[in-house]
Amino acid sequence: MANYREMWETLGMDLETHDQLCAVLPTAFGDTYLSQENRPAGMDFWDMVVADIHGIRPAELIEAQKKGQKVFGTFCVYVPDEVVIAANGIVTGLCGGSQFWVPSGEEVLPKSTCALIKASVGARLGRTCPFFRIADMYVGETTCDGKKKAWEILGKDVPMHIMDMPQMKREKDIAKWAEEIKDFAAVVEEFTGNKITPEKLNDAIKLINEKRKALARVYEARKADKLPISGKDVLLISQIAFFDDPARCAQMCNALADELEQRIADGVSVFKEGTKRIMITGTPMAIPNWKLHHIIETSGAAVVCEETCTGTRYFEKLVDDSKETLDDQYRAIAERYMGINCACFTPNTGRVDDILRLAKEYKVDGVIDVNLKFCCLYDTEGYTVEEALKANGIPVLGIETDYTDSDAEQLRTRIEAFVEMLG
């Protein structure tokens, strides 16, 4: 492992506190991931990324900045990477998934704010995450009230652009989102000093589409009767995809998919025959939030799909790459992103349709609908989701949790009972 202390010091990080995080992460990762047996060889790449998660990619971003590129930090799957890339910018994810950052967030936010928002703010204010120090501009969006207020805090010392997300999916809402993307493109052009052309935007659309198709191949392998990879490993891939170079991510996902397809052909499985298949729905799980997957997969079940923003919502649906003018391209991008079914929309029947479709495609035995504590959007929509699943004869368990381990044994008891009920 390289020594990145000089880089962290230059970024103005709190090295003493950051050392505490670096001391905890290897043990957590080892207990959760390296304890697994018969993992695909292709997971070595993602293990390496996590081992140097605050070193390798941050160092790449800094080198790119030295060459004149701008880094845009994003928090949500609705912010279109294609626009930034078309202006020779770089996108990096910024959501926080660790309890480590929550206390710093609680210094300025109510305790009744969800852990993801508190961790994101805390990672910046506590100066313990290099990605938050590196980003030249933050890009927020209005998908929830907690985030809207968090942007005001995060935008005090970092340039912040906020995209106004429609709350419905009518034709006029899609047109509004296309205009919002066009406005964002103008901001990106001014900030980077680079002009977005139809040719550059088309190249960016194709690049991100290839990344989506590569992730979809990995997910497709999970539909097999004999599972060639654990749910934990796929979650890790999805989480890192938000940070990694998109071309490299696509390359490594395709290489892993090749291995998984061969494993399926050879009848290789990482779970014993008859293991119950679980789909997770609900709130996103930002790195390093691995708690629920780990509990499920050490309680006699396997996670085969995630209907979350760190799951199918991230890669399903491609942007139409046949458009030739910027206005038509912005419209195509808007249509693709508005096809993501987040709980921020009303009505949101499309999400229920997605859940029922995915349950069938991945041949799930049961669904665990997870809500990150204090996320009232997904908590409220849980009623509709559970009602639809029960009406279709699909067992469902609703869970509310946060980033702490204080409820781990209670969750294990409930999940074990749910798996046993699946018979």
Helix content: 40-55%
Total of helices: 19
> In angstroms, what is the radius of gyration?
21 Å
Largest beta-sheet details: 4 strands, parallel
Identify the strand order in the major beta sheet. Answer: 2-1-3-4
Name of the level-1 CATH class: Alpha Beta
Instruction: Look up the CATH topology.
Output: Rossmann fold
Number of structural units classed as domains: 1
Oligomer: single chain
Task: Report, as a whole number of angstroms, the end-to-end distance.
Answer: 46 Å
Q: What shape does the CA trace take? A: globular
Give helix and strand order, one letter per element, not per position. HHHHEHEHHHEHEHHHHEHEHHHEHEH
State which percent range the strand residues make up.
5-15%
**Structural class by SSE content:** alpha/beta
Quickly give the CATH architecture.
Answer: 3-Layer(aba) Sandwich
Q: Count all strands and give the number.
A: 8
**Unreliably modeled segments:** none
Write a structural description.
This protein has 423 residues and is α/β, with parallel strands linked by helices. The protein has one domain (5-25, 53-422): 3-Layer(aba) Sandwich (Rossmann fold), CATH 3.40.50.11900. Helices cover 53% and strands 10% of the residues. The strands form 2 sheets. Strands 2-1-3-4 form a 4-stranded parallel β-sheet, with helices on both faces. It starts with a helix and ends with a helix.
